Every structure is written in C-alpha cells, then in structure tokens.
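Long-time lurker. I teach an intro course on protein structure, and each term I like to show students one example going from raw sequence to a predicted 3D structure in token notation. This year I'd like something fresh instead of my usual example. Would anyone be willing to generate the tokens for the chain below so I can use it in lecture? Attribution to the forum is fine with me.
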Amino acid sequence: MKMLMKRLFTVLMLVLPLSLQAQMQFGYMSYKTVMAEMPEYAQAKQSMAELKAKYDAEATRGEEEFQKKFVDFLQGQKDFPQTIMQKRQAELQSLMENGIAFRMKSQQTLEQAEKDLMEEVKKKLNNIILEVGVEYGYAFVLNTDDDACPFINPVIGVNVTDLVRWKLGLLAEPPVGANPVVQPQEGQQAPAGAPAGQPMQQPAEQQIQQQAQPVQQPVQQEQHPAQQEQQPVQEQVQP
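-- Reply from a regular --
Happy to contribute to a lecture. Here you go:
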C-alpha cells in the first residue's frame, strides 16, 4: 500500500503539465489520527468490546465444561467399562472440536462486525474530506499514514488536519487562514493564474463615465492667394 501511494503520486506529477503543477495545491493529513478522534470511532470500539466480551464469555464457558469433564474422565477411567469410556472420550472429542470451531467462527464474526462498524465511520470521514477538497480547491488530499510521503513541499502542500477536524465538529472554529475558493458568477471565468485554495479576485467595476474623447473640430483650409485672385468678377449691370 505504501509503495502504491508513492507510485500514484509520482505518476500524477509526471502527467500534469508544469504550468498546472505550479498553480496546483493539494492537502495532506493523517487519516488514522483524525478517525481515532471521532465520536463514532469511540462508539464503534465500545460496541466491538461489548460484542467480543460476550463471545469470550461463551467460549470460556465451553472450555470450563471441557475441563470439568476431562477431570472426571481421568478420575474414573480405571473404573469405567469399555463402553462408558468410549462414550466419555467421544464427548470430550466433540467438546474440544466444538470449542475450536466456535473460536474460529467467533473471530470471523468479530472481524466482519468491526469492518461494518468502521465502514460507517470511514464513510463519514471520506465525505468530509471530499467536501474540504472541493470547497477549498485542492487537487487531492494525501494520506500520510505509515510514512507514505516522507517529504511534502509546503509551497503546494497544505495540512488540512485541523480543517477536517473543524468540519467534523471536533474544533469550535476553523483554522486561521482557511479560505474557501469563491465560485465564479455566471458568465464569468476564474483567472487562469489564480492559485487553488485562495479566494478568487473579482474583476474591477466598470467606470460609470467614460473618459471624454476630444472632439476634432473641422479646420477650415486657408485659401491660397492665387486662388483669391481667381475669384469670379461680378458681371456688370446692363443699363
């Protein structure tokens, strides 16, 4: 599992373009640590302890019954007829086999019960992690359990442990600096260079009045002196 996580992370880094890697942010946390703090986890553990105690009590009762009959067999085997001795031996053999079978069946039942109880706890935790990833714009959330990732670049990696705790109700207030990603409005696209995990900047408001453009006044062309001389002469008035 540890090697698989490392390989998946390496493949993801190779597939993504460098420009996208520079803008991408991801979260990381200890899955086991957060799950162990959940009230549902403590309740599941308590239910498992109670169920295990019942199976252990029943197994102990069978073992005590076997020990008692075995002691009676040892004390009376010299005086038992052959038929009674064979009957007692068969009873002891049956008790021993039943005890072993019950222990094995109990172990399988307890394992399945624990799996079912923890499945509900994991389902809730996974939903919260999904909510955090989408709301805060993380590409993925990495599980650091079992030293799966010994180094995380703090520039693109964000510890979301307290954020997940807050979403689960384990913390009264959100961690400082946790800003959800603002979704763009209809017809508005997010800036291409906006890093994930930070609020998107809204575009500047349009100016109400536009700057007045200078109006170009028509310039009357000056007439050339030669043109002035060529003006038509008024006709003489005939008497």
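Some talking points for your students: Helices lie at 2-15, 18-23, 31-36, 39-76, 82-135, 161-167, 225-229. The chain has a mean pLDDT of 77.
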